[in-house]
Amino acid sequence: MNARVLMRVAAAVAGLILSTTVGHAAEVKVFTSVALTVALNELSPIFEQKTGHKLVVDFNLAAVQKKRLIDGDRADVIILTRSMMEDLAKENKLAPGNLVNVAGTPVALAARAGVPKPDISTVEAFKQTLLSARSISYADPAKGGLSGVVASRAIERLGIAEQMKAKTTLVPGAQSPDLVAKGEVELGIAQASEIVPIAGTQLVGPLPGELGSMTLFTGGVGAETQSAAAAKAFIDFLSGPEAAPYFKSKGFQTGL
Asked: Which of 10, 30, 126, 200 could form a disulfide with 181 if both were Cys (CB 3.0 to 4.6 A apart)?
């Protein structure tokens, strides 16, 4: 076989591979939580380049995403908290099969970068830190923000709700670390994954003892997807070893 024939064969094979890849490429709609924004913004292009699939990722508060799905919105991939995913499975909003844990992140305290870290080593120390703070911020629990619900419950359990009310700024989503970085509030309570990427803030640590909460994000394929293989491939990618370092660098834990 001469060189010209070999070149023609190689070109034909390359064309076949390209047409097969394009033919199987899918647009994958993803519904997920704002807590995963920074990690998925880095991981999504890697998956797209590896597979040829196109991701359309919709970030919002987890409670908002769950309600949208219950009300009839559709997505190929859904990544919300474990309990929410189990609820959606009961509502037949997910394809049959096992749910896959992707990553988890604790609710934590943020302070401005460069200042001494306040003591939150015990529940009592955390209480005193909040009482002595000039101001704090967390997500409005009425809007369904997970960290805001945890923060509000913690403050109630500590018996300091009235003392904290006047110096608390509620935000609609994941903006508390930004307010800390700008110096608009002294402390913020948010998911660790929402704190770590923000320049000008430092992660003090998870809420202590019984006040602590780990948010486990779990992936599943939407019940009405037309792109089941691509959807499953994305979930497998996120829960696999290639994605783990990206999640860990953003304040998540993997292998849960």
From this structure: 200
